Amino acid sequence: MYIVTVTFEIAADHLEEFRTAMHQQAENSLQLEAACRQFDVCFCTDSPVHCFLYEKYDDKAAFQAHLESDHFKAFDALVGPWIVSKTVNTWNLSIN
Predict the structure, then answer these.
(1) Calpha distance 15→26 (Å, rounded)
(2) CA Rg, the chain, in Å?
(3) Which of 8, 28, 44, 54 could form a cystine bridge with 71, CB 3.0-4.6 A?
(4) Which among 88, 95, 94 has a CA at the least distance from the CA of 64?
């Protein structure tokens, strides 16, 4: 399995819009991408402008297909201006 973690800091004045768009993005990824096995969206309890994603794909090619999907491109264009910072890390799951 190929794991992707993403941390965001969101502009406070766009937090609710981002939250709505992010939940839709997670739903779209799970429904439209057979190789997307998990897409968890978490917001920090102490600092709600911080968001953490945990995504699980069959392999690196599946994640690349995710990045090239129409729904991801639309999401990325929408939320881009609201993001203060973003860090993406990838991992190989060694034990299921």
Answers:
(1) 16
(2) 13
(3) 28
(4) 88
Return the residue matching tokens 């090619």: 61
Global pTM value: 0.93
Q: How far does CA 49 lie from the centroid of its chain?
A: 15
Name the burial class of residue 92, with classes exposed (0-12), middle (13-18) and buried (19+) by CB atoms within 10 angstroms of its CB: exposed
Torsion 47-29-27-22 (CA) sign? positive
Beta bridge partners of 68: none
* 29-85 per-position pLDDT tens digit: 999 999 999 999 999 999 999 999 999 999 999 999 999 999 999 999 999 999 999
Q: CA-CA distance, 8 to 85, in Å (whole number)?
A: 6
CB atoms within 10 A of CB 30: 14
Identify any residues that bridge with 3 across adjacent strands, giving them in sequence order.
56, 91
